[in-house]
Write a structure and sequence with these properties.
transcription cis-regulatory region binding, Arc Repressor Mutant, subunit A, about 220 residues, globular, Tetracycline Repressor, domain 2
């Protein structure tokens, strides 16, 4: 019969993730070693490695379990044909606006964690290689969004000549740039609220890929 983690093991795992998120956010991903994370979680490195194989794996789980969720929505939207039928079907504009909201919040929280890697090119390269070996990385959200838009194009809900990869790059790029500006130069003082930002970005994007002249009359 399959075994399940005990309550104590689950508590240790949660404590490790809490400590990892705090250490990565305050001292940066580059300096948050497994030894430092274990110390902050009040456990041994040996205990840490019972739950996670590497710091990169810890980072992946911090992104999935401790930051605003983005992947579940993208997974849902790419799981099958677009929900283009029925009165309760969400429009492309609604889907993209929700993606933009979540992406903006996700990058806002994740950028301060990973920013320290950019000061050490060799470490950044090793981290990127490790993330790709785990089947993840910063390229994944844009790839998933492009896959969703391919489905919408096939369903006729965006223009047949629309470029899903370019549209995904524009939306995700805007969200990540917002996170960078929030982190430096006093950007937080003048930042547009995330709800207004998401609506504006998507409506501007749809002006180029919507099947009609106005996103308000988008085909459903």
């Amino acid at each position: 019969m399959p075994t399940h983690p005990s309550g104590a093991a689950r508590a240790t795992r949660e404590r490790i993730l809490d400590a990892a998120e705090e250490r990565m956010r305050t001292i940066g991903l580059a300096r948050a070693t497994t030894k430092e994370i274990a110390r902050a979680a009040s456990c041994s490195e040996a205990a840490l490695y019972k739950h996670f194989k590497s710091k990169e794996e810890i980072f992946v789980h911090v992104l999935k379990e401790r930051l605003p969720p983005l992947s579940p929505l993208l997974d849902e939207l790419t799981a099958g044909p677009p929900a283009a039928h029925g009165s309760d079907a969400r429009s492309v504009e609604q889907n993209l606006t929700e993606i933009a909201r979540r992406a903006a919040r996700f990058y806002e929280r994740s950028f301060p964690i990973s920013a320290s890697l950019f000061a050490e090119p060799k470490l950044l390269q090793r981290h990127d290689e490790a993330m790709r070996s785990l089947g993840t990385g910063p390229h994944k959200p844009a790839e998933s969004l492009a896959a969703y838009l391919h489905g919408e194009r096939d369903a006729g809900r965006i223009r047949p000549d629309a470029d899903p990869e370019a549209a995904a790059a524009l939306l995700m790029g805007a969200c990540s740039q917002r996170a960078i500006l929030l982190s430096i130069g006093g950007g937080a003082d003048t930042a547009q609220p995330v709800e207004e930002f998401a609506v504006g970005i998507v409506r501007t994007l749809l002006a180029g890929i919507a099947p009609s002249a106005s996103p308000d009359t988008e085909a459903r």
